[in-house]
Specification:
Elements (H helix, E strand, L loop, with lengths): L1 E5 L2 E4 L4 E8 L6 E8 L6 E6 L7 E2 L7 E6 L4 E6 L8 E9 L6 E2 L3 E6 L1
Amino acid sequence: VQLVESGGGLVQAGGSLRLSCAASGLTFSLYKVAWYRQAPGKERAFVASIGWSADSPYYADSVKDRFTISRANAKNTVYLQMNSLKPEDTAIYYCKAEHQYGGRDYWGQGTQVTVSS
């Protein structure tokens, strides 16, 4: 099983980035996918999640109305569109595939997002 994040980088405050999480080696329909982030010196924190049907995305309050999570099931890929970025959004962003029926969860290796002021 592999989860590969991409799309991170350096952006100025107010800018946008789109992260991708490409999954392979698993039955994608069995997994909810979530994005987490970890800033330097802080614990990993939930950002957003989306189920197979994509009808119930869920967001942390800190990113609501700025970030949008979506998934392309035919491509086994989940996206995180990040708009109006702030310096406090600087972190390593990880995707996590969460088995919907109690099976093993998987993490990606992370992608760095840096927002300059």
